[in-house]
Amino acid sequence: MTKLTIKKYAKVIFPAILFFVLTLIMPQTNFAQSSDPDAPTALTKGVIEGSSSGGSSDEKTYYYTFDVVKGTLTLTLDITPLNKSDAGGYVEWSMMDTKFATLKYDNLSAQGSPERQVKDLPVTIKRRIIMKIVVSGNINYKFKLAGSAVNFAR
Description:
7-stranded mixed β-sheet; single chain; globular
């Protein structure tokens, strides 16, 4: 092979390898879920997605953190059972301050068909929020955080 041929292949192969490595690394970074309340996952976008397939006796707890300002925080939770014939599952969520005092909490379960919950939460002061999510059963879940109190584009 000549040096010209090697350079030509290097221009094609290097970007392909870089793209491949980044696609392996990036999804792990974007979807990291902390089960440690002292080190919650910092949200960089207003969506949390996941699935649970451990049955109703297998609870998983995750912690996230994000900042809010005065305004309205709209929380949308969608749950879809993985199998329409089983017991489905549930999601419990809590919004807490940095001292873990509960500000708001709720839960949603789904069996057989998808369920949706939408909550508008008034925010009166700027603060950091810790969100605790407990998931159980055989479900896919998706939280969407939006409204005038959050801006994940910053």
